[in-house]
Design goal:
The chain is 48% helix and 18% strand. The chain is of the alpha+beta class. The longest helix has 20 residues.
Length: 265
């Protein structure tokens, strides 16, 4: 039993065989045919395993929400509100969702530099829609609004525009200090750190998949001052955006931290 972990991206895992027992705001059994949902910032850990075989994907939530695909995030938001993180996929959809995940893995890991970003995103959208449809047939969670749930949702949908801690606090009806303390205790990151994480994820995606100028990228991810964006990027990654892009391209990099897929036994 390892200590619970959290990460800045949302993730899902489709179990093709075996089983696991997961500690994630309660203890849950995950079996073949189930999808485990892990919202960004939610502590989780595996406490028992029975030869699990799964394939999964992690993704940047603000990047997706920025493209008006927020409805695909409904299952993750229900989990944050107290619903079970385990979604049972109908048997007749198992092969399809497995195929989509494998295609996404191939698209991101191919040796020729990976499929275009639009292809990867299209596959991700199809996967999330499968999960959303499966989740709709299950009992919805009783609404349990709270500062952490509301603040993260607001940040994920607004961090790619000018956004401050005061804006987040005003949106959830609490003081800035209260919001930061609540988020730090629940997720290990403050409100400002969550804003920066969302912006950096989208910046990396744009740098990796386009030749846009850094000044334009800064504006697209919520920074009015390109110099400030460069300083923040260097602090987070140890390199300027231009240097990071050059290194990624020289290595033929096809994956970001948030867009990964794989399987384990």
């Amino acid at each position: 039993m390892r200590a619970p972990v959290t990460h800045a991206f949302a993730a899902l895992a489709f179990y093709t065989s075996g089983a696991s027992r997961i500690d994630q705001r309660g203890r849950w059994n995950v079996e073949a045919g189930d999808v485990l949902l892990v919202p960004a910032g939610q502590p989780h850990r595996s406490i028992e395993k029975a030869a699990p075989d799964w394939i999964g994907v992690g993704f940047c939530v603000p990047c997706l929400a920025a493209e008006e695909a927020g409805s695909l995030l409904e299952p993750f938001e229900r989990v944050r509100s107290g619903a079970s993180p385990v979604v049972r996929v109908p048997a007749d959809r198992h092969a399809h969702i497995d195929m989509l995940l494998r295609e996404l893995m191939r698209a991101t890991e191919s040796r020729d530099g990976g499929a275009p970003d639009v292809v990867q995103r299209s596959l991700l959208v199809l996967i999330l829609d499968e999960v959303r449809q499966a989740a709709r047939s299950q009992h919805p969670a009783s609404p349990s609004p709270g500062v952490v749930v509301d603040a993260l949702r607001f940040i994920e949908r607004n961090c790619l525009r000018p956004l401050s801690l005061k804006d987040v606090a005003r949106a959830v009806g609490r003081s800035p200090a209260y919001v930061t303390t609540a988020l730090s205790r629940a997720t290990g990151r403050s409100a400002v750190e969550w804003i920066v994480a969302g912006r950096m994820a989208e910046a990396r995606r744009i740098l990796l998949h386009s030749d846009e100028r850094v000044e334009l990228i800064a504006e697209r991810v919520g920074y009015a001052d390109a110099t400030h964006f460069i300083r923040m990027f260097r602090r987070e990654h140890g390199a300027t955006p231009a240097a990071w892009r050059a290194e990624a391209q020289s290595k033929g990099r096809t994956l970001t931290q948030e867009t990964v897929s794989g399987r384990t036994r």
